[in-house]
Structures are given as structure tokens and as C-alpha cells.
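Subject: mismatched residue count in predicted assembly?

I count 633 residues in my input, but I want to confirm that the predicted structure covers every chain. Input:
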Amino acid sequence: MKNTNSQPTEKKVWAGATAGAILAGSAASLFKRAKNNSQQKSKMLLSVRKWFIFSVIFLIVCVLITTFLLIGHLDQYLYIKEHNIEIDLLSEPGFVMDDGSGNMAFSTESTDTLFQAAYVGADGQTMTVVSADGSDVVAPGTGGEYVFRIKNTEKVPTIYSVVLDGFFSVENSEHLIPIRVRMKGNDGTYLIGSETEWTPISELKSISDAGTLKGRASRCYTIEWMWPYESGNDKLDTMLGNGELEGIDLPALEDGEDLSFSIKIETLAMLPVDDRAPFTAFFDGAFPILSVVCVALLVTTLVIIFKYRSVDRKTD
Amino acid sequence: MMKNKMMRVASVLLVAVLLSTCTISGTFAKYVTQNDAADEARVAKFGVVIQADGTLYGKYYGTNFKPTITDTAANLLVQTSDAEKVVAPGAQSDKGLYFSLTGTPEVRTKLTVTITAENIFLKEGTYAVMVPATNVSETSWNATDYYTEADGVYTLSASYNAQATYYTMENVATVADDFYYPVVYSATIDQFNAGNYTADTLNAIAAEYAKLLNNNTAVSGTTTDCVTTYTFDVTYDPNFDYSELAADNETITWAWAFDGVNDEADTILANLMAADASELAGAVVKVGNTITAPALNTDYHLETSFSINIEVEQVGA
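Triage response: the counts match. Full output below for your records.
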């Protein structure tokens, strides 16, 4: 994602430099006006000293603040360095995708799954499909629903995107196999399909949702799939169940190979520089300005002092 | 002195500010994290295999008395004059009819079976062929051998009438047992003995197959015009192994013995078949209180057939 903060930062630096130049010019003109006036020179010496002390104190405060912020990010920085991770990629998730119960989506710990090893009929009791080896299966008359949640575990807003894909183990077979899908977003509106309409799995590739999640906020998605019991082509369903793919112009399965169906969810989360918490945003926006102003003040003060000392020596 | 110290402090602070500014700017880089998850399932296996092969009957039977596909008259012992397949005394099936049901589907299934069977039989009683007598004269006529016919009933003539048509009773056959089933069927069902010509072996086999496919539960058949039909359906849970029904590699065969034991009854049946085919061979009668034609499907049946239809489909709850 493009860093949209680069131009505003440069503007802030230029603004800070301009302000610093104005201050430096003002201080220089003040010194010039007073240098031939001994009384004003004394007053100016006093104000220069005060100005200098103020600058020193201000710089000390800036150093303390930047050190404090640095410590807050140092552990992450060191983690990145230790694990040879690029400076802009974290393996520690500040953004998780789970099943709503704290278990990672589709993990073995998750009690809810998109697919199952056994299905019951409409009466809720009679087993209609049971996997012989315990692996998840699909069959005519089966379906499933899965709710997954993406959660921003950071305190700051995060930009995210969600992309889905559905595919079979045999390439270019999505158009032949009668599984249908639909998906709802966080507000219940359908991203594909509708309450009465199911779409082919090839349309899963067209699903992508993006947005911004506030700090600690989460968003839920519901994905549903089904294999119609009456697809209108019992012969096709039977061939798929028997693994007879040659009958539908697909490459034959190898011995022991199964025709499988997968659904994949990919999420990408990004911590935008512009959208961080106000506290850090303040320093992000103001810090370049403050840094330049501080440097300009210190340089101006030093110039004045050096000039004063040379004038003083000449006077002496 | 004091001024130098202050200058040094200022210089150090300047450097510290510059360093911390650079470092903190670097740690405010853009953070990106990725995550992905996937779930996979395979297509549940169906895998039910129903095989049927072979044939029981033929239009032609060769020198081995088994069906042959030849269409030439040479070396044929039995051949039909029309398109129908036939059976005849001395004939038998070749490899027979074979069927098999196997598979272990991972889905709930319903097995639907329809078996029909009909067999040739001659019911208990005395049968004969009333052959028209020729050259009957007053001198050759007698009161014990010559019959006349009126409205399908044959009676011994009491006197000679030159205008009457006389019949003699030939090929008398007596079926002593309840029924005579000339076509004896055999099957490979384990430990099953269908019997011999005194029992309807085909119907017994059909009933046994129905019981096997119904998960070893007997099925009642319905009979109409000597055709017995067994039809039923049974639902099996997922992962039911159909080979447990012991209905795999089943073969049915038949034979019509030509052993001289029931030749007279075989002749009666052959005459009845000829009469059905409108060939003039002499009317067959059953000798009882009256001498009349035997009743079709009650006293005799002239057709034999066997069919089995097996269907397995996935069902829900």
C-alpha cells in the first residue's frame, strides 16, 4: 500500500525550517540593533542567557520524550532484527483472524469448521454422510456455514483487506462441480449471492473486502457453501462420488488420490502512519517541525553566543 | 569556564536530539501483517457397484443344448419360429445370469429391488391329447375309445354316428405331485437348495434373493397370472458394506431334464405350447369329472422368466 504521508511530512519540515529561519532572523536583527547600545547590550545578554537556558531545557524535554517513545518500539524493533524480518513486516500478529472463540480460523483447536466429517439430515439426528476415515467430506445434500472474525489487536486503527478463493484439487474443474457458495459481510449484507441465490465457487475469487478497523475492534464474515441434493444431474454427482472424472473430461485421479475442495481466506493488515493514535500522531506530525525548530534555536543561540564572545573580546 | 561547559552541554543535547529523531522516525515505519487460513474436504465416496451380465434363454440351442447365437439351421437342436426365446426339454442355460452388488458408500443410501419370476408348470392331474380319429366306421367304432366333443367337453360316444367327429385320447400323462415344474433352476446362494421339478425352484430362488437383499428379512411376493413379484426398498446407514448382503457374484442357471421320467408330462406341455402357437396338434384336455381343456395359469403355465432390478441411490434423513 502506498505511503500517503511522505508529502505532508516534507511540508512539515519545510514549515519548520521556515519558522526556524524566521526566529533566527529575528534574533539576529535584535542582536544587531542592540550591539551598539551598551544598555541594550546588557539586557540582550541577559535575554540571550535566558533564551539559551530555555532552549537547553526544551531540548532536554524533547530528548526525554523521544527516548520514551523509542523504548516503546524498541522491543518490536529488536524482535524484527532477531528474526531477520524486514523492518515493515511483523510476525507477531497485531491482527488476528479467528473463529470468534479465540481459536485461529480453521485451526485444529477450532470447534467450528467449514467442512465436517459427518453430516445429519433435516431431522437433525439421522446421519446422512459419514467419512470412513474421519477426514472432512462433501457430498450432495451437504452444506456448511462458517463465521470468522478479524480482530485488530492493536490500540490504533488498522487498514485491512480480506480475499477469498475456492478451488478443487483438479485444475479447471470449478465450472463442472455443483458446489455453490455465498458470503455475508459484517453488516449482514451479501458480498456474493443472496438470501435466495447461491453462486458458483468460481465467484469466490471475486470477493474482496477492505476497510479500516478501529483499535481493538473486530469484524465478522459468514461464508456458506452447499452441494444441492438435487443438482439436476445425478449422473454427474455419481461420477464425482466414484472418482470417475474421465466421464466429465477431467484428468483421471491417481491411485489413492481424492478429489478435494478447499476454501482459503487471506487477510492483510496495515498500520497506516497517518491513522495512528492522537498521541503518537501528534509527535509524528509535529516532531519534524519541533526537531527543526529546536535545531534552529540552538544554532541561533550558539551563533549569538559566539558572536557575543567575539564582540566581548574586542571590547575587552 | 562556565560558558564552555554550557556549550558542551548544548552540543551534546543537539547530538542527542538529532540521533533520537532519526531513530524514532525509523521505528514509526509502516507495519504490515498477513494471515491466511484454509480448510479442505474431499468428495465423499459413493462407490456402489451393481453388475449384471449373461443371459438365461436363447432363440437357438446348439448340439450341447445350450443357447447359441447362430442364425443358421445347421447343428441346431432347438430353434424358435418367432422372435421369442424358448425353452425345451433337454435344453439348458449356458453360463446363466450373473449379478453382483458391492460397495461401501459414505452416504446414506436406499436400496430398491424388484424381482419377478414365473415358471412353467403342469398342475396335479391327468392330461391327454384328444386326437381326431380318422377312418372310423361302424365296425371299428367302440364305446370305450371314441369321444365326441360338444362345447369344449369331451364325452365317450354312446353310439356310432357316421356324421360325428370322433376323438381318441392319446399321450395320457399323470402328474402325481402337486405340480410338475420341468425347468429346474439353480443358484449360487450359499447353502441354498432350490429343490427339483416338484417345486418352483425359480420362485424359491427369487424369494431367497429378496430376503438377502432385504438384509436377511423375508419379503412377501405378489402373484398375478403366475408372475410373482418381490419389490421392496431398505435404507442403509453411511458406510454400510453392501457385500455383507452376500449378493455378490450370484449366478442363476436352469435345465430341462430329458431323462425319460416325465416324458408324458413334457409332451402335454409341448402340445399346449403348440396349441398356443395355433399349430394343429390335438387339443389337450384334463381328465377329471369332465374332460375339458385345462385352464391357463391354473392347470398349466407355459412361460418362464426371471428379472432383477437393483437400484441404489443416496438419500437424506
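The first helix of chain B runs from residue 2 to 27. Marking this ticket as 'not a bug'.
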